[in-house]
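Students often ask why we bother predicting the structure of a whole assembly rather than each chain alone. The short answer is interfaces. A chain on its own may look different once its partners are present, and contacts between molecules only exist in the joint model. In this exercise we take two input lines together and write out one structure for the complete complex. Read the inputs first and try to guess which parts will touch.
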Amino acid sequence: MKQIVAREEYCIGCRLCEINCIVHRSQSKNIITAFRHEREGLTPSVVVESSGQHNFAVQCRHCADAPCVEACITGAMTRDPETGAVICDTKRCVSCWSCIMVCPAGAVMRGASGKPASKCDQCAGESEPCCVAGCPNAALKWEEVND
Amino acid sequence: MRKWLVQPEFAVERDENRCVQCQACVRQCANDVHAFDSVSNCVISDGSKCVGCHRCATLCPTNAIQIKQVELDFRPNASWTPATIRNLYKQAEGGGVVLAGMGNDKPYRIYWDHLLLNASQVTNPSIDPLREPMELRTFLGAKPDHVHFEKTDGKTHLKTTSKTKLGPQLELQIPVMFSAMSYGSISLNASIALARAAGLAGTFANTGEGGLHKSIFPNADNMIVQVASGRFGVDAAYLNRAAAVEIKIGQGAKPGIGGHLPGNKVDREVSQTRMIPEGSDAISPAPHHDIYSIEDLRQLVFAIKEATRYEKPVSVKIAAVHNIAAIASGCVHAGADIVAIDGFRGGTGAAPLITRDNVGIPIELALASVDTRLREEGIRNRASLVCAGGIRSSGDVIKAIALGADAVYIGTAACVAMGCHLCQKCYTGKCNWGIATQDPTLTRRLNPEVAVQRLTNLLRGWAAEIKEILGGLGVNAIESLRGNREHLRAVGLHENELRILGVKHAGEGA
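Now the answer. The structure tokens for the assembled complex follow.
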């Protein structure tokens, strides 16, 4: 399946991926409106981990044998049979956070408003995820990955 | 805090209506201009540290940042300009030599902007480069004085074979090469990008005096290696690995003086590549201590030719100075296959400001006088001429070739293609664009894949533009344009300048 691949050697820690993710997940899709008026309800589903000169963006790996899907008590966490992406049905999520506890990458987060679980859906419907499209140094790649 | 006489050059203007406090600017500025203030809960900027590199403004996702030049109103004075006064304050404060990066930025006449190209009308047809073949390929190296042919009897037809042996040549698919920029003065990512882009575009990049890093070995066929006064990284393998060898006598930005890479930039990789101890200053002497005459230069040229079994062209790079025509002629007599002339607008990683802005002569005049001199001596064929220092566009490339160059070197233009904003602070080692730095937090900002794409895009664009202009001139090969100054006309130049350039004034016919 196609995956977002982070390349530590080129990540500059600017966190524009987080910002683009927030905008993509907003109602308005406008950066200024999103940050001014919608920010409370928005969580980026990519987080840049930084230590000194080393940075890289972490988002859901859409694991082949996804622990979050196994752990989900309501069946909200499912795999899209077409794209292979693990997605969260926010209507079914009851915010038990089992997914957060089992995620090996720390890529599932609580939604900003407290619920439901928030995670990367690879910007379903877009030609490429917005974090990849907006990365100024091509440190994120959208490419076919075999396991 | 003590106030300094040197006032800030730039002010950061933040549009608070657009700023979303994302702090991308904070994370991108190596000069600590921006900082998040936890008391007021917003980003605060200190323009006094700003160098005007535009990294923050470029990466700001809402375009909320503008960098403005501070216009302190000194009393108007044509002689004592703000820049002059500022430098005096700076020098009085610190003593020592004021440093600068990039090339001469003073408003000396740019002759390219006073030269215009011809085009075909009625009496000769222009050529459509999209429909007809157009040759940009050129060869650098010594050409023979005469070509002898031998007619041999084939079974069914008469065959003609050249009896003349041609010396080693560099084959360029576009007459534009990347100038010497050493690994050390620029980052490894930048060096790799230049080497790979040269390979993809069918041209050459130059190592400068920094040696050839092992990660560039796969692109060595597209590298010209430099032998400079410091001899950094030079051994027989280095010479033989490359496509050509260049002896660097001078550099346009700082003719007559050497170089100094501070020890803090000499990390493990730089030290191994330059073959010097880690952390030691890399000092290139002003002269080559084994070259004090043309005869000495000839010895080095032939020592290199011997070391490379006469299989590689040897170039001599000289800065454009007053007696350039005679010096270039001497270089050709010394056995150089290529003479590269670097004009006073050529860039540098670091030079004394006073040298950068006051020493050398314009490349246009130097190139024309060298080409004329070599023709007069009947030795123009014995070396190719490469024009460097201040080539900004494909228009400059064509004009340089019409003035007599075989090809050009671009350094600043290539850096700009990779992201350089000409802030001229290369010597600080804090290049926010990841080009002129060895700081690992900054070098990763230049992804070679992105930079290679941008450099090859630039060359592809220039190639298309050069073909368009050649077509308009009615010329179908770049080599047919070389030294054909009839294709140039000047505007607004003095008779002396016209004579030196060998160009007629606009309005004068054939």
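Check your guess against this: Chain B touches chain A at residues 17-18, 20-24, 27-28, 59, 61-62, 440-441, 444-447, 449-450 (CB under 8 Å).
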